[in-house]
Amino acid sequence: MGVLLKIFNWKTVNLITFFTLLVLIVLSFYGIYTNRFYFFKPDNYIIPFLGGIHFIYLYVIWFKIKENELPDPKMRNLEYVVYTILIVYLFKIYDSAMVMNSYTQFQEHVLPSAFRPISIISLVLYSLLPFLTLLTIWYRKKMVGAYNFENYNNNLNVWQ
């Protein structure tokens, strides 16, 4: 376990999450059955919007760790939103698995040659994302600290 935590330190986890989100944002516009990109479907903008919130959370974690700051209520609220986004990621795992399994239903139709590789890539990336998100939250608890706002005002020292 210790070796895995050395390989997947907080910087590595943030970078992998960042690039995973970027690839998934691009793939959210891709029509897997038609081999085209669709930019005018409102459903395709759900993952980019949620990914933007996730990017903000990654930045806040990076900033708090780099500056050695205490957690604040805004960070807590943002983390609660990320918990909700995790539910959407879990649904996207299910949705990607259903799309990938639909290959057998449409074998007599002409499917693009990129159907299987792209569906496998999206399923793997969506499966990786909740793990990385939970690992990021774990690093937040370990390196930034727990959300203890009862003594928050007593611990502030403006003259430091």
Which strand order does the major sheet show? Answer: 1-2
Mean residue pLDDT: 88
Helix content: 55-70%
Q: How many strands appear in the DSSP assignment? A: 2
- Portion in strands: under 5%
Rg, Å, rounded = 19 Å
Order of helices and strands: HHEEHHHH
Give a quick account of the main beta sheet: strands, pairing sense, barrel closure.
Answer: 2 strands, antiparallel
Cα shape: elongated
Structural class: mainly alpha
Low-confidence stretches: none
Distance between the termini: 37 Å
Count of alpha/pi helices: 6
Your description of this structure?
This protein is mainly alpha-helical and 160 residues long. The chain is built from six helices and two strands; from the N terminus they run H-H-E-E-H-H-H-H. A two-stranded antiparallel sheet has the order 1-2. A hairpin with a 4-residue loop joins strand 1 and strand 2. The protein is elongated and about 60 Å long. The relative contact order is 0.15.
